[in-house]
Write a structure and sequence with these properties.
Tetramer of two alpha and two beta subunits. The protein contains 11 helices and no strands. The chain has 336 residues and is mostly helical.
């Protein structure tokens, strides 16, 4: 690693560092911040009450699916905020990245309030919805998987100057940005948007569209940050660490598949757990490719109507030390 690279490393914990925005060192972070600001929206702009007639004539299985999704999305948006506040923001020193993270944290809060808006509007048992993330084993297992990684960064001492500390930083990013936001959330988004495919809950679908637009930027930021840290820290570029990251993604797929059987125990019109799980495997392959791995499942996308929500970034190698191809054209990211 050259001395120039060391001086411009994105990792750092000094309070006096990262106080001057210009010159911008990481243009991709500045571009994503600008796009995130342009994307600003508020849930009450959508007339969700217009969907009540649709909700009233839905089957119990369909209502269960909507409730189950709210049970998962609501607390996990707040969990992402904890991961950002305690596991990402304190360990980087680029002000443009801090600006983006501040906007992302606001967006996670806005998403939480969006799901509260759904709970307030639809006749959903809030207590049941709130309790499920603890009482349903498949949902609780996903949450514990995520908590495991953030706990290592909040309840234990993390020295970001050591190889193991940097590995923990990357693990946390993979757990939250790649797995939670890039696979698990997208799986739920597909189920939520499937109702609109049948001309149901159209305003709810618009709300999810806006959330997906935010999440696409969150995913890009996370991937860019992972690749930047890997590029700037050659000690992380080992086959063993690559295998560990890859296995994290595969383990997450197995957990999501179990969850989807609880989400859709008997299936609903046009959708069942096997269909959703094929989509999960398709997503996992896209995320693996975005990190430079070979696809693992090699399945087709069963929900091609969701393709606009999962366009991949320009592919790079997980351990490519001189990569510059991951800068994002933020103005083109809205449809991703």
């Amino acid at each position: 690693m050259t001395s120039t690279t060391a001086r411009t490393s994105i990792l750092g914990t000094g309070i006096s560092e990262g106080l001057l925005l210009k010159p911008v060192r990481y243009q991709w972070a500045m571009d994503l911040y600008d796009q995130a600001v342009a994307n600003t929206w508020f849930p009450n702009e959508i007339q969700l009450g217009e969907d009540l007639a649709d909700f009233s004539r839905m089957t119990d299985e369909e209502k269960h699916a909507v409730t189950f999704l709210m049970s998962y999305f609501n607390p996990n948006e707040l969990l992402v905020n904890k991961a950002l506040a305690f596991g990402v923001y304190p360990y980087i020193n680029a002000p443009e990245a801090h600006l983006y993270l501040a906007k992302q944290m606001w967006e996670e809060a806005n998403h939480c309030m969006s799901f509260e808006y759904v709970l307030e509007t639809f006749p959903i048992d809030r207590a049941e919805a709130y309790d499920s993330h603890v009482t349903v084993p498949s949902m609780a297992a996903k949450e514990e998987f995520e908590v495991h990684y953030i706990r290592r960064m909040t309840e234990q001492t993390l020295d970001i100057t050591t190889t193991e500390g940097k590995r923990d930083f990357v693990r946390n990013l993979v757990a939250y940005n790649i797995i939670l936001e890039g696979i698990w959330f997208y799986s739920g988004f597909m189920v939520a948007l499937s109702f609109r495919q049948r001309n149901l809950l159209r305003n709810f679908g618009s709300l999810i569209d806006w959330i997906v637009r935010d999440e696409s930027l969150h995913l890009k930021f996370g991937i860019n940050l992972i690749l930047t840290v890997l590029e700037e820290n050659e000690d992380l570029q080992t086959p063993e660490f690559a295998d560990e990251i890859r296995q994290m993604v595969l383990d997450a797929v197995a957990m999501e598949e179990a969850y989807n059987h609880d989400l859709l125990p008997h299936g609903i019109l046009g959708l069942n757990a096997d269909y959703v799980n094929q989509y999960v495997r398709y997503l996992a392959d896209r995320r693996l490719e975005e990190l430079g791995f070979e696809p693992h499942y090699r399945v087709s996308n069963p929900a091609k109507w969701m393709a606009a929500a999962n366009d991949t970034l320009q592919l790079v190698n997980f351990f490519e030390a001189t990569n510059t191809s991951y800068e994002v054209n933020a103005s083109a990211s809205t449809a991703r």
